[in-house]
Amino acid sequence: MYTCGIDVGSVSTKVVILGKKDNKIASYVIAPTGSDGKNAAIKALDDSLKKAGLTDNEIEATVATGYGRINIPFADQNITEISCHARGAISLFSDLKTVIDIGGQDSKVIKLKDGKPIDFLMNDKCSAGTGRFLEVMARAMEINIEQFAPIFIKTNDKVDITSTCTVFAESEIVSLIGQGVDKNKIIKGLIYSIADKITSMVGRVGLDEPVCMTGGVAKNLGVVKALEENLGIKINIPDEPQITGALGAACLAQNLY
Amino acid sequence: MGIKDKLKTGVQRNLNQKYIRRLLDIIAKKPVLYTYGSTFSSLSDKYLNIFTIESLRNAYSDNNHPVGYGSLFLPYEMFHALGITPFLPEVMAGFIAGLGLATQTLKEASSNWYSQDLCTFHRSASGAVELDVFPKPDFVITTNLACDAAQKSFYIHSVKYNIEKNFYLIDVPYEYSKESILYLTGQIKNICMNISSKSGMKLDTSKFKEVINLSNEFRKWAIKVNNLRKTLTSYPPYYNGLNFILPFHGLAGTREAVILYNQMYKELKKYLDKEEKEKSGKNKSPKRILWLHLKPYYKNEIFDVLERENCRVVFEEINYIYWPELDPERPFESLAKKMLSHFLAGSIDNRINVILKAARDYKVDGTVLFSHWGCRQSNGGARIIKDSLNKLNIPTLVLDGDCVDQNNSSQGQVKTRLQGFVEILNS
Q: Does residue A233 sit in the same domain as residue A246?
């Protein structure tokens, strides 16, 4: 039998189906959430079942997480992203002490002790320091977001982005481009502005190693490198960081039966 | 701004003003209140609402008693002894938020250059003053105890009503010492004398004694309520300890406060007796939460979330009885000691000691510090409070939000943080 974890985030919905016996991921799906989280979850679950060659009768328990967690009618329980990301990260890297999760709409730092969350901090209500910030900036610069990491690595200098607010930062970079400032330096500055915001959150919760980073932004090696540089540590990144919350939800669903 | 836009803004302002005035008028009418009163859940709930609104009605009525605006941390016994009707703009800001009117008052404040990072209790109250929907004060009294914004915004209120000469600031020294008591006693006495001579309300010694005795009686019942709550886990659904700000402060020294706290004690005692009888051990005991600072006063889900997650707020910092019994023979000195004893006066250590004591006395599993936007006196200590509680292995959630402005926080984010915190308590 299997358990299922569904993470309905602001940008994407993630589903993980986890085998009970082998504790291995049978399948996973990452799909856009769009405007209807419930339907996105149903569709992603269907796709995930198909991928694994399973039927829904073989799913023994489902846990929903993410901002849309309360709207998933077929979930047996909803658990916050804090517990799910912590549990997912622990299933991948034992002995973890800190989890940094940067998603589309929020970012969080979770402190762990003996594999359990004991404290956390989430970003304040604006989108500074989240994936959305990077997306908006990439759009404003007309550069594919996937180009950010290679540009970060090959560029030595940066231009400081002083605005925290996403809207103001957007107008700041438009103005910098207008002044003829090298776009690569602006990108490096943008990545550091996210890393600096997260670094201060880590400082507030307290940095304990080992550290793991989860969420879609962990795929951006530029942000990871900037954070590693700021914190002076090596950060563990899962093979697919975006599904860590859903994986944690599937792990926690194992406790339900 | 064009003429049409100006006209539109003017019309909107007048509509806001009329709407709020009319609502406050309706609420303050006694017969309406008593009809509504029959639907209260209990006698203490009825007393709380009736006394709160009667105090409002008195401030609005033309009963020849002078009206005094007062900030939260004043010893209101002096108002009652002087025959001044207290009106607490900060408490009214909470009331306005509860009525869903804060958007209008905050907009008005914003149009009048009140800074966006000023605490919304003061910003909303200032908007109401600008809209001219509060009763006209004869005196404005405030203090620098704990709150920095009060002394500034209350002075502006006095300017608005052209009564700067009737503005009084009670300066509370940092240290509790003999000299501080003397200094503060002198100030309170002088202010009382000054107001008495200006208002023509005689400062009657026997009246002052009566007020002090009533204040002690209220204190006695409030302590009894607090002691009872050390073992209580289930509460009547209407009870929320964060709703007693007006009686705790503004009604100290009145018979109403005594009646209310006495009744509350009786009702909670009944609950405790019932709880002990029904003790079966079958139900999972709820997580015990200590609440620091205030709560949002507009419609919100915080306490429903806690209830659903089987958590109970077993004590609120604001209900801590911090002052010693008052001496009716030395009223001014007693009130000076009351002010100096406040845990928000002086060093942050005073507040931490109270929090740690409450955490131990009420055997709490976790603490929530509601971090109200713009409240420096409370938020400034968040880190050191959290660290101190961590030493006792008590997790603390610093929950960012706004007590008055519902547009300044997201319900979903608040819910996630609370639920995540409860998951930590349960893990």
A: no
Please give the Cα distance from A222 to A189 (Å, whole number): 11
**In this structure, is residue B32 part of a structural domain?**
yes
Tokens read off for B37: 């009163």
Structure tokens at B307: 């209830």
Provide the domain count of chain A.
Answer: 2
Contact list, A83 vs chain B (CB under 8 Å): 420, 423-424, 427
Q: Does A192 touch chain B (CB under 8 A)?
A: no
Do A83 and A110 belong together in one domain?
no
Look up the CATH number of the domain holding residue A184. Answer: 3.30.420.40
Mutate one of B413, B418, B422 to test the A interface: name it (highest A CB count within 10 A). B413
Domain coverage including residue A192: 96-237
Pairwise CB contact (< 8 Å): A122 & B424: no
Residues 109-128, chain A: which have Cβ within 8 Å of B?
A: 116-120, 122, 124-125
Among B409, B417, B427, whose Cβ lies nearest the Cβ of A122?
B417
Of the partner residues A83, A116, A124, the one whose CB lies closest to the CB of residue B420? A83
B400 and A125 within 8 Å at the Cβ level: the answer is yes
Burial group, residue B137, by CB count within 10 angstroms (0-12, 13-18, 19+): buried
Inside any domain, residue B137? yes
Q: Based on the domain organization, do A119 and A223 belong to the same domain? A: yes
Q: Write out the E strands in chain A.
A: 2-8, 12-19, 25-32, 59-65, 77-78, 98-102, 107-113, 116-122, 211-214, 235-236
Q: Indicate if the pLDDT at residue B37 is higher than 60.
A: no
- A136 and A221 fall within a common domain: yes
Instruction: Name residues whose C-beta falls within 8 Å of residue B411's C-beta, 6 or more positions apart in sequence.
Output: B300, B301
Neighbours of A168 (CB within 10 A): 13
Residue of chain B minimizing CA distance to A68: B412
Q: Give the Cα-Cα-Cα angle B144, B80, B238 (nearest 5 degrees).
A: 85
Residue B176 lies in a domain: yes
Residue A118 distance to chain B (closest CA, Å)? 6
Taking phi over 0 as left and psi of -120 to 50 as alpha, with beta for the rest, B364 belongs to beta
What is the ipTM score, two decimals? 0.88
Instruction: Give yes or no for residue B4 having a pLDDT over 60.
Output: no
Residue B36 has pLDDT above 50, yes or no: no
* B4: Cβ contacts below 8 Å, ≥ 6 apart: none
* Same domain for A224 and A167: yes
pLDDT tens digits, one per residue of B158-180: 999 999 999 999 999 999 999 99
User: Strands of B396-401's sheet, edge to edge?
Assistant: B311-316, B287-292, B366-372, B396-401
Q: Is A214 on the interface with B (CB under 8 A)?
A: no
Distance from CA of A182 to the nearest CA of B (A): 36
User: Chain A contacts of B412, Cβ < 8 Å?
Assistant: 67
pTM of this structure: 0.89
What is the Cα–Cα distance from B313 to A89, expressed in whole angstroms?
32
For testing contact with chain B, the best of A85, A106, A125 (most B CBs within 10 A): A125
Instruction: Tell me, yes or no, whether B415 lies in a domain.
Output: no
- Selecting from B400, B416, B427 the residue whose C-beta is nearest the C-beta of A117 gives B427
Cα–Cα distance for residue pair B370/B316, rounded to 1 Å: 11
Q: Has residue B388 got a pLDDT over 60?
A: yes
What is the number of structural domains in chain B? 1
Token code pair at residue A175: 């103005």
